Amino acid sequence: MKFTLSWLKDHLDTDASLDEIVEALTMIGLEVEGVEDPGAKYAPFVIGHVLEARQHPNADRLRVCMVDTGTGAPIQVVCGAPNARTGLKGVFAPAGTHIPGTGIDLAVGTIRGVESHGMLCSERELELSNDHTGIIDLPEDAPVGTPYPAYAGLDDPVIDIAITPNRPDCLGVHGVARDLAAYGIGKMKDIRLPAIKGSFQSPIAVDLRFSEETANACPAFAGRYVRGLANGQSPGYVQKRLRAIGLRPINALVDITNYISYDRGRPLHVYDADKVEGVIHARLGKTGEKYLALDGRTYEADEAMCVIADDSGVLGFGGIMGGEDTGCTEATKNVFIESALFDPLRTAETGRRTGIISDARYRFERGVDPAFMLPGIELATQMVMDFCGGEPSDVVVAGKAPESDLIIDFPFAEVKRLSGLDLKPLEIKVILQSLGFWVSGAGDVVKVAVPSWRPDVHGKADLVEEVARIAGVNKIVPTPTPGLDGVARPVLTLNQTRTRRARRALAMRGMVEAVTWSFIAKSEAEAFGGGARELELANPISSEMSDMRPSLLAGLMLAAQRNADRGIGDVALFEVGQIYRGDKPKDQLTAATGIRRGTAGIMGSGRHWQGAAPVVDAFEAKADALALLEALGLNAGNVQIAASAPDWFHPGRSGTLQLGPQTILGHFGEIHPRVLDKLDVAGPMVGFELFLEMLPAPKAKATRAKPPFQATAFQAVRRDFAFVVERDVTAAAILRAARGVDKKLIVDASVFDLFEGASIGEGRKSVAIEVTLQPTDKTMTDEEIEAVAKKIVAAVVKTTGGTLRA
Amino acid sequence: MTELSSLENEILAAIAAAGDEAALEAVRVAALGKKGSVSERMKSLGAMSAEERKVWGPALNGLKDKIGTAIAERRTVLKEASLDARLAEERVDVTLPVRPGPADRGRIHPISQVMDEIAEIFADMGFRIAEGPDVETDYYNFTALNFPVGHPAREMHDTFFFHPDEAGERKLLRTHTSPVQIHTMEAEKPPIRVVIPGRTYRCDSDQTHTPMFHQLEGLVIDEQSHIGHMKWVLMEFCRAFFEVDHVEMRFRPSFFPFTEPSLEVDIRCDRRGNEIRFGEGDDWLEILGCGMVHPNVLRNCGLDPDRYQGYAWGMGIDRIAMLKYGMPDLRAFFDADVRWINHYGFRPLDLPTLAGGLSG
Questions:
Q1: What pTM did the predictor assign?
Q2: Which of A510, A518, A563 sits opposite B102 (nearest CB)?
Q3: Do A490 and B123 touch (CB under 8 A)?
Q4: Residue A18: in which H helix or E strand, if any?
Q5: How do residues B309-329 score in pLDDT, each as one tens digit?
């Protein structure tokens, strides 16, 4: 909402400076988005009088002028303009002035031997027009020494305020003035809008044609005929103000409606009465009806839209935009002025569906003051008569403007309760009254009637806001919150703690945290088991962001590729964030996911004099996943590794981390080459994903004490075994068999060598394991050790079908 | 006796001349070995008279000790020299670069770091952290928060919608973290003191807007909290978060459907290029919106607005991160450019704590 300072002062009697007004607007909730002071750049320019213009002694085309600027001795200026002459009144710029049209900072100069202490300016030099044929030639009565911007009316600052959707009353300058007056910035001017008596009956009747259920689409419609007028240009001040707020003056009749829209927040429409056929009426549209709107486009109505029509058909959408065919032109002689009320919701809906953006729609969908329907028509009539002449008819009205009957029981104590502001009842009462509320009753609880222009005020809290913003929210004293009872308690949930730990744990492994979009392309979602319709956006911002992600892998892989495209191919990225398996709250899980590309292993990437980093493999991803599980409080040794994983992993180089088949903690492995292709991403790439909600919660413990440390006095014994087994036999099966022999005695079993080669036969491999025996009560004898070793061999052979390697 | 003294000179010279431990051992054997020159002479003591033995005994024993000491000393010298030689041989070029360890390479994204900082501050003020789903219903995102159907305030939210289901209901991506206010008030009774960080979405994309961003919601419901309390909490937060001695904040009236009265908050700062200083200068920077929870919102959650009251606020996490750490472009947050994250990100052990200072 834009207006100029002089416009505001039509409604508000104030001596406040522009800065004070701007500050006040912001502090009462009408946030100033910008102030443009068009006069600022013209400030140094004054009206000068050329007392004498004589020929330059050394140049035919130049004159030496003595200019009176109203401040003592005349100033000598060398001027090249053909119209520079004795007696001329022009616009003078002293040395030091920045000339907007040329961008030059004026200095004292010597031109062909004669000093020049300033300049007489052309319109182009002032950026007023492109005219540079001569200097500005002002009327003889122009007051010498007066600042030119004030003289020319170039100094009316334009204020742009942001109006929140709850304040339709401030979509007119009048309402803004009311708020400022309440705040103490001046006094409202008493502007009377007396009813103008019509001299004849309107030849055009108005009618509302709605069913009872849809009558609220247009509860009231008023109009007036004005005949015998002459439509021309509107007066200079109207044009100047409209231009200042970014509107193009068209003709007096159109300008009047635009002006009142901004002056009073009251949209109007003026029809060329000679183009109207029969009764002007409001009704719901009929499917298929069309009209050519003032924006030059044709719109189609339907049964949900409120239209204004005559016998020939639709003239416009009610409260949104009139039609071209009945619009006013220079030739218009007789007009019909419309001032009506339209339902905000229906207006908003019609506006949305047609895409029409207009000042009228903007106001009606926020709520236009119903009580100003008739004053609005009087104001318009007066302006039409003032600008165009003509003779007005009686006002014709169909329907009735609804009257506000909202009265709020308001305890003064409510102000203190909600805002913390300590105000006296009288102060509260004065503020409400200054905003147009009626306050009646004595005592602690009063009755407050809400003015017709405040559709946003419904209850006590709204009144507190009114009081607080006018009393000044900066007066509310910051008040410490009642303190805590002692040392703050931990507040994070298990999942929150795990999310935080996961990030730090993965960063500790040399990975860099990415935050990628929650939505990805449909094809990408499908590649990771997603793409269901319930997770597809109906209005995505682009096809690359159309579906909620089922996995963080896609986003990370694409990110890795973007980095590779920038020349950084070896990247290790992770993200801890939400994934979606459905559209219910429980379907949203937290995934901790990482990828490594190229040679970005935990020990570093690329070449190095101590040895180049190897290309990442599935075990790198497995190590990340297990380390993360440990960091999150699980014993990685208890996690089962199943040699299978979802389709987006390499079928032979991937695994699933689980606690039994029902509790899938996550997956790891090499990314499937087909998926790399599908995402247009180059490998090698490995990754893992863990689902934090699937991790079991730790058992609640009564105390923080750890179990007692038990150091054994007896030395552990290590024995090595090598088994030749079929290639498909897993290391896990061998180790499990070995450990199973004596779970108490055997504290560790690990693989220290793996060999595949012709010497042990096709399809076979040799797996060498080290088993650690830890006696707890005595040192083991050789015989005892031998007995356990035999059992181990027997167990492994039995479960794996392998043999002890000779 | 002269003979003995010349033997002594001879042996000591041989010891001094021994270039390594092997040569020294040879000298030792030649002198003190079973058939060594000194040993042979010791053997001859037995054949001597008591008088002679009195003279030769001490002399020979003295010689033996002297030689032993000389050999031991020489051995030490030779050992040191050979160690020095070995060490000289073992010299490496210590200027050769080493690989940085994983903890030096890992980075935490500024968003995560700032979320941890926020949690640290609000946990100290007794706030819990609540969360909620990104995929929401119209009811939780709008209706329960007092956005009337068809109201222009809904339009301002540029909502992402999903397709309507069989019942005609269409889910949406939450446009703010405020739906979690409703979930929280439905799930628990006052007093409530929570902050709600999370991802939010609006279909808007330009220099300063991304379709996804992060918000921090706050909600306090009890029987006495008013705007004064809210001001204090927000000022304390900003002071602690921006790690300055004082901040100056300007509260101005505004409008949000779910608060009444509603306020927007600016913070005083001085902007010079990329650097922002808080608590000084002439610029006011908008950082959050807040207000007293609207009576209709309380009613929608089954709370009596004449008994319960409280405040709520919402601020952009990305925005306060940008302000604090000087990142100029929001879009870069979601690009995963490792150069950017290496530059603006945090090291894994940069754990924000109140005891140690949020940013160390």
A1: 0.87
A2: A510
A3: yes
A4: helix A18-27
A5: 999 999 999 999 999 998 888
